[in-house]
Amino acid sequence: MAMATSACQALLLFMAFAAAVLMSTASGTLQYNFYSSTCPNAEQAVRDATTMIISDDPTMGAALVRLFFHDCFVRGCDASILLDQSNSNPQPEKLAIPLRGYSAVDAIKAAVEAVCPGVVSCADILAYAARDSAMVSGGFSFPMPGGRRDGAASNLTDIFGSLPAPNMQVQALVQSFANKGLSAGDLVALSGAHSFGVTHCSFVTPRLYPAADPTLNATYAAALEQACPQGGAGGTVLNNNNFSDPNRLSNQYYRNLAAGEVLFTSDQTLTTDATTNKMAQDNAADPVGWMARFAGSMVKMGGIQVLTGHQGEIRRVCSATNSGS
Ligand code: HEM
Ligand SMILES: *[C@@H]1O[C@H](CO)[C@@H](O)[C@H](O)[C@H]1NC(C)=O
Ligand SMILES: *[C@@H]1O[C@H](CO)[C@@H](O)[C@H](O)[C@H]1NC(C)=O
Ligand SMILES: *[C@@H]1O[C@H](CO)[C@@H](O)[C@H](O)[C@H]1NC(C)=O
């Protein structure tokens, strides 16, 4: 059993690496082992800090993966999601959508600054921490290229039109991902992140009232109505995955999808298109294949509109630009 698992993981490492090398050749900007000469322990420091954070709070893996998605989809992977309000950024992205994990990112950044001050960008820290969350919470690892630099701007109006919404149908989701250079396969593979973490009732009640969405399994809908009563507190939190460990990143999501037991329209709609439904079925049937696809898609997402070379800066703290203004 242990041997079979490690053989799978070794294979996966190779497959993800092969996929990732192709991505980086195509974009030609980010590099593997980017900090090998400037901060050889950078990736290890992120991994150690991330592992400790998730062992203290097993829900943090999901928070870090979602932060990376929101960073990359809005203005590219430039750590704009991490900036606090300031004179030059009076309405930063983070005011628009409440996300978890900011203090975890600060702790990881502090651990990296302790080994190499001023060298590793917050955008790379988010990418490595998301990769390591998959390792801790999903049991698979893959190389993630580095070299992203941190942007100076964060503007909540950039959210609209950049991030997909949970009431979207499959065509709109495919278009939203295409706008970022990602494919339908990336959409389906990355949606597997909804196997872990938490969701507020407010995102689910539109599918329950006045009448339950008929694409929900009726038993599941009844359980959701119990957990999220009409007119109840929208802030109540549900586990994304009620059928196995909600802190486990896995292909269970695709089995839930086939059973009508997923939280959002944007999840369930993936079964309504023949192409995306086939991809979802393949991911349900082949856990290692899904891991490799998820890994490749995370690397691809991590290349969206990155700042490199002399663009941007390396922030000293992730919540503010170095000028602090
Ligand atoms: C396809 C379009 C997507 C939509 C419409 C969407 C929407 C949402 C919504 C509404 C929530 C609940 C937020 C809350 O209640 O606070 C959520 C949670 C989450 N999403 Fe997505 N998402 C999408 C894609 C992704 C992708 C690509 C990833 C990462 C690869 C991702 C990772 C997560 C995670 C991990 C959570 C749980 C966060 C936590 O525990 O704090 N999502 N998503
Ligand atoms: C944010 O974006 C809006 C819309 O593009 C723009 O009007 C506004 O000036 C921007 N804010 C900052 C501080 O750049
Ligand atoms: C809905 O889920 C319940 C409980 O898991 C299961 O017994 C039932 O067969 C499902 N119904 C459909 C239509 O899939
Ligand atoms: C989640 O699982 C628990 C225990 O199996 C069950 O009592 C609850 O109704 C489920 N909630 C939802 C929303 O499916």
From TrEMBL:
GO terms for biological process: hydrogen peroxide catabolic process; response to oxidative stress. The record marks 66 as: Transition state stabilizer. Binds 2 calcium ions per subunit. Disulfide bonds join 39-116, 72-77, 122-318, 201-228. It is found in: Secreted. Ca(2+) binds at residues 71, 74, 76, 78, 80, 93. This is Peroxidase. One of its GO terms (cellular component) is extracellular region. Its cofactor is Ca(2+); heme b. The active site is at 70 (proton acceptor). It is an enzyme of class 1 (oxidoreductase). Removal of H(2)O(2), oxidation of toxic reductants, biosynthesis and degradation of lignin, suberization, auxin catabolism, response to environmental stresses such as wounding, pathogen attack and oxidative stress. It catalyses: 2 a phenolic donor + H2O2 = 2 a phenolic radical donor + 2 H2O. It holds the Pfam family peroxidase. Keywords: Calcium, Disulfide bond, Glycoprotein, Heme, Hydrogen peroxide, Iron, Metal-binding, Oxidoreductase, Peroxidase, Secreted, Signal. Belongs to the peroxidase family. Classical plant (class III) peroxidase subfamily. Belongs to the peroxidase family. Ascorbate peroxidase subfamily. Coiled coil: none annotated. Its EC number is 1.11.1.7. GO terms for molecular function: heme binding; lactoperoxidase activity; metal ion binding. Residues 1-20 form the signal peptide.
